[in-house]
């Protein structure tokens, strides 16, 4: 909060100029526009009107001088209020730029992830995934067996309240299908048969509406399909990718799996390093910065909804929420995101992390290439819209994270250039982020997709 007392001479000069301006806009009878005496203009329009007009003229300059004198850097324009009119005293609330103090990096360390090694069993599992991806689903007229794919309608009641209501759910029956015992309970059922049974959902089940509850289930099976897996031979290898033999396929799957596991290991290291850095940092930021972060989160959500055909108003009505409700809901995440970004930005600044023109150009080209023949057009749009600055910031952040992780893990290697895989992080730069819409109703109030035994893509089209 700044208290500003402009010089009386400055105020009087501005007020006389304002009075002339007012009398020019609203001429006083008997005088040419702008020529009425000051005293008469004040008597007709009032001193407050003249003062407000004068402030419009001098406020910016007075504010700038006060900021310079106080030697502070504002985050954005301050809010000016009149405390007294005679003499003129102004109060200005100035949101200051964030202040970040990082911990002593020499005192921080993380345990490096062990080197990734791939076993024959893991490769076998990858091969099985390929087989299932290329499986044929044959309708059969026999009772359900373990390993079948079934389409069923499922209803569940717990504590006299309906907690599951799923129509035409497609399920692959195996030991991993949640909840435990569900797949076994369907064994022996015929098409169009209904069976009732009770199962206990685990205490740590991801859906809190079902966790640690005994649920009375009613299941009606409508379709039974036998899963016919292809033989593991050279034909499967050719179908699976750019392979000629089973050995080539296994080598390729092993290489891809290793790269995926190494990326996951690096991600865990990075998250550990960032968390350690954030926990040890002191971050002060103005409310305005958080408000901006919250608004950005809401704008992103609005944009995603519009991309899948929902209007913001319809979404609010459908969810029974107000924008104030959503703002409160996203604030914790926005706060975490703001602090994390401020800390990483300060680290990048301290470590003098930069991005070369070649790196920036390479990332622009990699991003634009996803649009095929429109690549050059997209490149031009990025330059004109200022999206390049967002891309640059993402590149700097990624390089900073790599440098931080290597430092805390005790590695002295130079960070590798960020490659085209960063495109996913860049997609939001020009507002054309792509969204994958996952429909509900794919298992018995199933676990998240990564916990499913069978990816949806492996199932016949139109089942789920």
Question: Can you characterise this structure?
Answer:
The protein has 14 helices and ten strands. By secondary structure, it is α+β, with helices and mostly antiparallel strands. Among the domains are: 2-97, Trigger factor ribosome-binding domain (Alpha-Beta Plaits), CATH 3.30.70.1050; 109-133 and 239-282; 136-228 and 442-458, Chitinase A, domain 3. α7 packs across α13 (387-408), α11 packs across α12 and α11 crosses α13 (387-408). The protein starts with a strand and ends in a 38-residue tail after the last helix.
> What sort of overall outline do the alpha carbons produce when their principal axes are compared?
elongated
Instruction: Describe the sheet with the most strands.
Output: 5 strands, antiparallel
Q: Termini, distance in Å? A: 59 Å
The portion of residues forming beta strands comes to 15-25%
Total DSSP E strands: 10
| SS element count, helices | 14
Oligomer description: single chain
CATH secondary-structure class of the domain at 136-228 and 442-458: Alpha Beta
- Structure classification: alpha+beta
Task: Please give a handful of descriptors for the protein shown.
alpha+beta, 10 strands, Alpha-Beta Plaits, three-stranded antiparallel beta sheet, 14 helices, Chitinase A, domain 3, five-stranded antiparallel beta sheet, 464 residues
Question: Layout of helices and strands, plus pairs?
Answer:
Elements: E1 2-4, H1 8-25, H2 38-45, H3 47-70, E2 79-85, E3 88-93, E4 99-101, H4 120-133, E5 136-139, E6 149-158, E7 161-172, H5 182-186, E8 194-200, E9 214-228, H6 234-240, H7 246-279, E10 282-284, H8 287-307, H9 312-319, H10 323-350, H11 357-369, H12 375-385, H13 387-408, H14 423-426
Antiparallel strand pairs: 1-3, 2-3, 4-10, 5-9, 6-7, 6-9, 8-9
